[in-house]
Inverse folding.
């Protein structure tokens, strides 16, 4: 089996949509749960085969922007990364020395002006949900660039479900203008593509899963994340030859539990509430299946039309999930610890120092200098904006494992961070 060819065949309808977006200078938003296979779709879009078959070798600059594990970027960091990737894709020698709103807009505008009559540029954003904390000016820049490029600029966003009910007004305007809130939901793999994914995992892990293939295909239900998790677990537990044994191992595996939490945490609150209710009684789905939030569950592949849940792996974690709205989720400070739902948050020393500073001034901006003082009290020479940003990223990731929206911590351009 040619693994890449199978993935290409499977994603062909979605590649056709991506190609049409590029050729017409529009916007396409692909939505899928964590680890549904967005990265593999991106690989196909960036492949030479995609250019040859769909773009007919047209002059298209594909700028790939991966925001995987890049949540919490400041605007300057985002602009710098965006311009660096654009510089590489367009084979340019220089980018602005000073990074700000003006230089970002100017640099991209000059690139577009320099495109030939038949040239186009497309920005492909993987894990776009990680930049939803950016302010209006960023999204306004993307809107203007598209409008005044007259069809030469396109955007392809691949996002987790947070985008379905996003609160960022700048992003709302972007979505409304270009897609009118129409999303393309990514599918679960069919049996042949699931087999190709198993083959891919075999190559990555150096292990044969021949004896487990039927079980993996049957119980992964075509979800890339489940296939990957099962393969990793079977590598370490080759004696798990039946699904009961494998599921028991999965339930107790920290990485599996973390992944499941990320899937649940990415869902809009009302969809998650419905999901939990339906998990207890699938007939309840009948009253929700025509609602927007209910349809999202079906579109995301989490629930079948009859209310049956596709992925039993989610059930134990889902049953533990506390159904509280964002307003009801409170982080309380007890002495030197922070408590969420009665559970102590296991912050690292640096994470605790930063969160403590933000918590004391909740609703107000905490400057980079103040955060630096908290991190390196007696060692000012160690001050580093990069280190602060990395600590904030880890902090936000930690909060997400407790079902707290990581966007409660927001960057303030050129100033610091704020806990809202």
């Amino acid at each position: 089996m040619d693994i890449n060819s199978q993935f290409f065949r499977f994603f062909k309808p979605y590649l056709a949509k991506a190609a049409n977006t590029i050729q017409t200078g529009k916007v396409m938003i692909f939505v899928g749960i964590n680890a549904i296979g967005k990265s593999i779709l991106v690989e196909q879009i960036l492949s030479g085969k995609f250019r040859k078959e769909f773009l007919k070798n047209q002059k298209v600059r594909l700028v790939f922007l991966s925001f995987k594990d890049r949540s919490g970027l400041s605007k300057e960091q985002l602009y710098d990364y965006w311009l660096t990737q654009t510089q590489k894709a367009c084979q340019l020698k220089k980018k602005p020395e000073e990074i700000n709103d003006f230089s970002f807009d100017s640099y991209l505008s000059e690139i577009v002006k320099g495109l030939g009559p038949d040239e186009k540029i497309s920005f492909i954003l993987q894990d776009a949900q990680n930049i939803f904390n950016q302010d209006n000016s960023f999204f306004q820049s993307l809107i203007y660039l598209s409008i005044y490029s007259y069809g030469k600029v396109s955007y392809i966003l691949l996002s987790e479900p947070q985008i379905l009910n996003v609160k960022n007004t700048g992003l709302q305007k972007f979505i409304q203008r270009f897609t009118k809130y129409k999303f393309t939901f990514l599918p679960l793999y069919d049996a042949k593509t699931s087999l190709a994914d198993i083959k891919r995992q075999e190559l990555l892990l150096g292990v044969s899963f021949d004896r487990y293939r039927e079980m993996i295909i049957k119980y992964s239900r075509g979800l890339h994340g489940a296939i990957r998790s099962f393969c990793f677990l079977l590598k370490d537990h080759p004696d798990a030859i039946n699904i009961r044994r494998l599921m028991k191992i999965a339930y107790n595996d920290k990485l599996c539990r973390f992944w499941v939490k990320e899937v649940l945490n990415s869902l809009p609150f009302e969809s998650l509430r419905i999901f939990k209710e339906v998990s207890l009684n699938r007939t309840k789905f009948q009253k929700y299946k025509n609602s927007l939030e209910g349809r999202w569950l079906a579109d995301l592949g989490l629930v079948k039309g009859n209310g049956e849940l596709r992925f039993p792996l989610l059930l134990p974690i889902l049953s533990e999930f506390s159904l509280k709205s964002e307003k009801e989720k409170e982080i309380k400070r007890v002495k030197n610890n922070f408590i969420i739902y009665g559970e102590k948050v296991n912050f690292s020393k640096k994470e605790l120092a930063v969160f403590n500073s933000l918590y004391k001034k909740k609703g107000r901006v905490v400057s980079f200098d103040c955060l630096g003082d908290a991190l390196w009290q007696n060692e000012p020479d160690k001050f580093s904006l990069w280190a602060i940003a990395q600590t904030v990223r880890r902090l936000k990731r930690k909060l997400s494992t407790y079902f707290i929206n990581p966007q409660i911590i927001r960057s303030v351009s050129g100033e610091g961070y704020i806990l809202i």
About this structure: The mean pLDDT is 89. The CA atoms of residues 140 and 170 lie 7 Å apart. The domain at 331-419 is CATH 1.10.10.10 (Arc Repressor Mutant, subunit A). The first strand starts at residue 27 and ends at 31.
